[in-house]
Amino acid sequence: MSGRVGPVLRMSDDVDAIVAAIEDDNPGQQVTVVDRGAYTRVSGEGELRVTRASIERHLGREFEMRQFEELMSAFAGRIEMTSQEVRWQLGG
Amino acid sequence: MARLPREEWYDIARDVDWDLSYVDYDEVFPEWMSGTGKVPREAWAEWDEPYKVTYPEYVATQREKETGAYSVKAVLRKSRVFDQLDEGWKSVAKQHFGAVALVEDLAAYAELRMARFGLAPAWRNMAVFGALDETRHAQISLYFPHELLGRDPQYDWAHKAYHTSQWTVAAARATFDGMMMNPNVVDVAVQLPFTFETGFTNVQFVALAADALESGDINFANMISSIQTDEARHSQQGGPTLKILVEHDPRRAQWVIDKTFWVSARLFSVLTGPAMDYYTPLAMRKQSFKEFMLEWVAGQFADQLQDYGLKKPWYWDEFLAGLDTWHHGLHLGVWYWRPTVWWNPQGGVSPAERDWLREKYPDWEDRFGPIWDVIIGNINAGQAGLTLPATLPWLCSLCQLPVGTAGSPGNQRYPVRSYPLSYDGRTYHFCSRPCRQIWWEDRDTLHSPTVVDRVLAGEVQPPTVEGLLTWMGLTPEVRGTDAYGYRWARAYPPGDPGPAGDAGPAGDAGPAVTEPSNGGRPVPVNALFAGDFVTQLVTLQDTDTVDQAASRIAAQVVGRRVRSREAGLVVRLGGRVLPGELTVAAAGIGPLDSVDVSWDAGRVGER
Amino acid sequence: MAARRLKTWSALGQLGRLPGEYEIVTHALNYTTRPGRPSALASNPTTPANMWLLTYRDSSPLQAGDWLGFRDPDRLTYRAYVTMQDQQETVVAGVLDEYGPARHDASLPSWWLEVLAALFTPTRFPVHALQMTSAYLGYLAPSSYITNCAVFGTGDLLRRVSLVAYRTRQLAEATDSAIGRTERARWQQDEAWQPARQALEKLLTAYDWGECFTAMNLVLRPTLDQILLHELAEAARDSGDELTWLLLSNLAADAARGIRWSTALARYAIEQRPENRDVLRRWADRWAPRAEAAAAGLGQLLSGVRPAGAAERAANSARHEVLDRAGLA
């Protein structure tokens, strides 16, 4: 079992900002980013999260958490989505 | 004033169960449809979707997604992007649209079934979004190819495919009806959203998008990855259902996943495997099919299984081994039988492509190289007719794909062979032990005739290749041809590989799938010629001698896919060598038997 | 390659005109209804699921030579649907903002809050029952043109449950009423609700697709929605609750669209086969008494705010009007 979790982002202008937000929200985690052109796989070990506040900071505009759905075409791990954050984890 | 956050009111919208008073619970949630089984009714109250969305959020998000997808399409329509796409890549898209569009619509019925018969209100609500999503996917998967109809009639099959009895479609229908429409909704939730949508569709919709973008098909890449953002959400109906099922009936959970995973893996090997490893232009391939499958399915999905306290399926090693062979055999089959498909398969075995295949699949050359060499030799000798079929591969009674393609030539562990089963007075053939086992366990449900069964039942008239193509709905202008007009084969130096030798006594093998009688009674058998990659339907006469039978079988293979040799032939039935001078009847060969033919060095010159 | 260039799907070629987006993406999608199939599903013809489709769809008393000729009068596609409903949800959000619910709701008199507690906030249960039934109709419909109408209709009903839930929360917070605590009890026990509940529970077991369609879309919904959307809205406006009036009026547009395609479908069925008029009428007659009883019960809950018997009469005449539009008068 690899134990890696996190979102797979589809191609868009916002990928870099989301990756930066994820890095901010997971201090101490080794966040791995694999870019395959049409998709970018972002992963961490066991658990990863991203908050609306960090996304807004990096995008420099308002962001509703529901809009994360437009960016994420898949993910690894179990997801938990609230109006303020998304969390991916295994063993939940 | 801002709206209330979702968390403030969401639970009220899903707190909508009540105690029925005027009708019985079992009437409203019949076991056939709802399928609670060993799970106590109350347990479903715990059902909690991890990926929540509300109606206002849904329509806002989906509107934005649709605007995105359609505006890219509108921009590209005016460009010349489509004209510049590689013919091999176009076949990926044609195959995708035909295989997928109407299955998306079928998935809408599966979601509607869960929206009605699901055992928790939260589940039923999520399934409503699922049904809307799948309606989107069907519509977008039709609207995009529709504008290409004027350029190429093969795109008509985006809509037409599932209205026909074409063989890959028949295989897909058997798989998807068994996954979405036949089972109760608990099984549907474990099979469709959990196993299929989180396991497999990612490979076709996310991974393939990587190849699409590289190939310059921005429109297609954008559309399929947008579709998958919906799947990422509604596939989350699977987890909560599985969690409850595992708690009360882990055996059922494991079985339902195991069988769905297997047939899905088989189907993806004919759909996605050739697309990634042969049709996508070499320079544009992001990863091999095997690498994508390891990333998305073997890795990510296997983690998921363990996370829910389940085991890897019992055939896991066989599945992993199959990543090296299944799709190569299926590609070879689709290419050889190309008039039976609605896209133009790219042969994909030029010297450069072959180097790539050997690098990604170290056994490829030993397994498949010899057959491709015969094909290349024939093409370059001006005998392309020998690379076209004169009979049908035998189709597995479960996955409905050619028997042999779950193994490969020269493979000790998983050889090319049938796994037969006698049941209820007849013999069924399977491509693998897992297909046979799944069919046996679920035989009352899964019993569904393959194209070969229908030919044998006399449904195809006349029973010739031409008759079969017409019966499958393939009008002459859509029948597949080599995407590059054999350009890839001409890249080999003249005379290398050398000629395949004599094509045998019936080099043109005749038009007959079930040949008319020469006085005897027809005996259709499932025939394997040693070194070939599939078993085939060959119709013998009971008055043939065994030697004549051997020639009939050899005619379908020798000089076509297996190089001719200075040797005689030997026929085996159930491992037993049959004397050449006996008649088929006297030798005990009966209809639907597995008959093996191989070279016999001891009989040189007799042929 | 043949010289003839296709302008549309070969399956749509006989239209004699170019199809629009609606037909391109809606025509003949349900392969389990294709002609010449051995059984609906590619599995043993005797599986429960195959038998279900055979019994309740393919052998329904409601038959037509060609269900693929039916068209939704609104010609809705998915993208048109989400665009339209996002606009409507934006309207709803605007209305909610304008009325600043906390202040508006706190100003409502307790006698009116009791009407809302009795007749408005409990509706998440009956509307969920309709949502389930509408999903079933989509599953069992004999053509994708009908299924898609039902799918969008199912979405509308989830929209309605969602808005009711949202308002339930707001009203519960802003007022000192029973709202938010008594909905299930009223739905399950209040005598005024019981005929409606009985009708809707029975509707859940009306498995023949034609009967399901007739009972829900031509009989029960026109009757119930007249009270739950229109009469209640009028009463709200008369009682100074403009917010409820505006929200219900917005939801009523969804219901009106449902009536448009449902009456068109009934007329189409009769056009295809005149005997269908009797088939539909028999079902309408079977379900009308249940609808009448439901109207009589729910009408009582408006007795303080509407003239005696007015709501019940309006509900029954709304049903008659729909049956009339359906060609079943």
Characterize the structure shown:
The complex is a heterotrimer of chains A (92), B (607) and C (329). Chain A is α+β, with helices and mostly antiparallel strands and 92 residues long. Chain A contains 3 helices and 7 strands. Chain A has a single domain, classed as Phenol Hydroxylase P2 Protein (Alpha-Beta Complex). A 4-stranded antiparallel β-sheet of chain A has the order 2-3-1-5. In chain A, a hairpin with a 3-residue loop joins strand 6 and strand 7. In chain B, the strands form 2 sheets. In chain B, strands 4-3-7-5-6 form a 5-stranded mixed β-sheet. In chain B, 61% of the residues are buried. About 1% of the residues of chain B have low confidence. With 329 residues, chain C is mainly α. Chain C has a single domain, classed as Ribonucleotide Reductase, subunit A (Orthogonal Bundle). Chain C has 13 helices and no strands. The model of chain C has no long low-confidence stretch (mean pLDDT 96). At the B-C interface, helix 1, helix 4, helix 6, helix 7 and helix 9 of B face helix 1, helix 2, helix 3, helix 6 and helix 7 of C.
Structure summary, number of beta strands of chain A: 7
Through-space gap between termini of chain B? 91 Å
Question: What value does the Rg of chain A take, in angstroms?
Answer: 12 Å
Question: Could you give the count of β-strands of chain B?
Answer: 7
CATH superfamily of one domain in chain B: Phosphatidylinositol 3-kinase Catalytic Subunit, Chain A, domain 1
Can you tell me the number of structural domains of chain A? Answer: 1
Radius of gyration of chain B: 26 Å
Strand content of chain B: 5-15%
The largest contact between protein chains, plus residue counts on each side, is:
B-C, 80 and 85 residues
Beta-strand portion of chain A reads: 35-45%
Shape of chain A: globular
Strand order of the biggest β-sheet of chain A: 2-3-1-5
Write the layout of secondary structure elements.
The complex is a heterotrimer of chains A (92), B (607) and C (329).
Chain A lengths: L3 E7 L4 H11 L6 E4 L3 E7 L1 E5 H8 L8 H4 E5 L1 E4 L3 E5 L3
Antiparallel strand pairs in A: 1-3, 1-5, 2-3, 4-7, 6-7
Helix pairs in contact in A: 1-2
Chain B lengths: L5 H8 L11 H4 L2 H4 L20 H23 L3 H4 L2 H31 L3 H26 L10 H4 L6 H15 L3 H30 L3 H17 L3 H11 L1 H30 L9 H19 L8 H7 L3 H11 L14 H10 L3 H17 L38 E5 L2 E5 L2 H9 L1 H4 L4 H6 L8 H7 L15 H4 L31 E8 L6 E6 L4 H10 L12 E6 L2 E3 L5 H4 L6 E7 L7
Parallel strand pairs in B: 3-7
Antiparallel strand pairs in B: 1-2, 3-4, 5-6, 5-7
Chain C lengths: L20 H6 L21 H11 L19 H22 L1 H6 L3 H11 L3 H17 L3 H31 L8 H7 L4 H10 L5 H30 L3 H31 L3 H25 L9 H16 L4
Helix pairs in contact in C: 3-11, 6-7, 6-9, 6-10, 7-11, 9-10, 9-12, 10-11, 10-12, 10-13, 12-13
